[in-house]
Design brief:
Layout (H helix, E strand, L loop, with lengths): L1 H29 L5 E6 L7 H14 L4 E6 L6 H5 L7 H5 L10 E2 L5 E4 L5 H4 L3 H12 L1 H4 L2 E6 L5 H9 L2 E6 L3 H17 L4 E9 L2 H19 L4 E7 L2 H8 L4 H4 L4 H15 L11 H14 L1
Parallel strand pairs: 1-5, 1-6, 2-4, 2-5, 6-7, 7-8
Antiparallel strand pairs: 3-4
Helix pairs in contact: 2-13, 6-14, 8-14, 9-10
Bound molecules: adenosine-5'-triphosphate and magnesium ion (MG).
Length: 303
């Protein structure tokens, strides 16, 4: 009985997925094609950004979207560890004109590509105008190769992370239900709201005990942001605290691949559908995609 119910549920889920993909493809074919650049961030560290980036990438890829993850947690290689793959080159090799962007794209599972950020963006600031233009042209190729670019950042309110946050089309803000994590998430929202009151910030609560807790935290953050900052947050959803996530991390496998039926994997698929449904939001008109992102980033770096 349970098996049949499970099969039926899977069929329905697949149908819904297909609908979402058709919708996304339609939107894509109408619009000028540039990649959607999404920065994944958090106030406090260790809340699940890398796990969410990787598994969201897998869910989006399974829906037929082309996804590239940029590991921008400079210093600590995050994505490498989760995939168990170490790329040979990094973005720094592109910045230094040693490699072109295609040569630094590493293959992850499920058709995902990923780029290791390497030692940092400081290199970008050092470039002469011509070198910078060359870099922007080069990285602009990613608009042709990807529908979505997920940028996994380090935690915190550092200038470096804030620049990635402010330059992206959309921000996914991850928090856990722990008070310190919520306070730090709020601090980040506050900084964002001061710099751009129209920034699109979508919140994910990770490691929620249950649906009640997930919704409660989402609402709490929305209410205080609205009341004290007049800033509107977008509630993207929650992911349960799930032993399967911990197991998968130990096996250096994304949980959506090792445990596709886990709560966490299902909830990530729900979240990815919601993300795709929001595809029609027009963000950064006239300066979209990777090129727009890098142009804004460089402006912030030089400010
Ligand atoms: N939904 C979850 N359920 C249970 N454990 C989780 C969940 N999400 C993350 N974890 C645990 O938290 C750890 C940290 O997750 P992750 O590395 O994705 O966080 P992060 O925000 O990227 O950290 P950092 O700030 O260091 O980059 C994981 O190794 C895993 O053990
Ligand atoms: Mg991380």
């Amino acid at each position: 009985m349970r098996d049949q119910a499970e099969k039926l549920r899977q069929i329905i889920e697949n149908l819904k997925l297909r609908q979402a993909v058709n919708q996304a493809n339609l939107v894509n074919s109408i619009k000028k094609k540039t990649a959607r650049v999404i920065t994944v961030t958090s106030g406090k560290g260790g809340v699940g950004k890398t796990n969410i980036s990787v598994n969201l990438a897998i869910a989006l890829s399974e829906m037929g979207l082309r996804v590239i993850i940029l590991d921008a947690d400079f210093g600590l290689a995050n994505i490498d560890v989760l995939f168990g793959i170490v790329p040979q080159f990094t973005l720094v090799d592109v910045i230094n004109s040693k490699k072109n962007i295609l040569e630094v794209l590493a293959d992850g599972p499920k058709n995902i590509k990923f780029i290791s950020g390497g030692s940092g963006v400081e290199e970008l600031v050092k470039l002469e105008k011509e070198q910078l233009e060359k870099f922007v042209e080069n990285i602009g190729l990613l608009d042709k190769l990807a529908d979505v670019i997920l940028i996994d950042t380090g935690a915190g309110l550092s200038d470096n992370v804030m620049n990635f946050v402010m330059a992206a089309d959309e921000v996914l803000l991850v928090t856990t239900p722990e008070p310190t994590s919520i306070t730090d998430a709020y601090a980040l929202v506050k900084m964002v709201s001061h710099r751009d009151k129209d920034k699109v910030v979508k919140v994910i609560v990770n490691r929620a005990e249950d649906a009640n807790e997930g919704n409660e935290i989402l609402n709490k953050l929305s209410v205080v942001s609205q009341r004290f900052l007049a800033f509107k947050l977008n509630q993207l959803g929650y992911v349960y605290r799930d032993e399967m996530v911990i197991k998968a991390v130990k096996q250096q496998q994304p949980f959506s691949i090792s445990y596709p039926k886990s709560h966490a994997a299902r909830q990530i698929r729900e979240i990815s559908k919601k993300l795709i449904d929001a595809q029609d939001e027009k963000i950064n008109p006239g300066n979209s995609g990777v090129k727009g992102f890098v142009n804004r980033l460089v402006n912030f770096l030089n400010a």
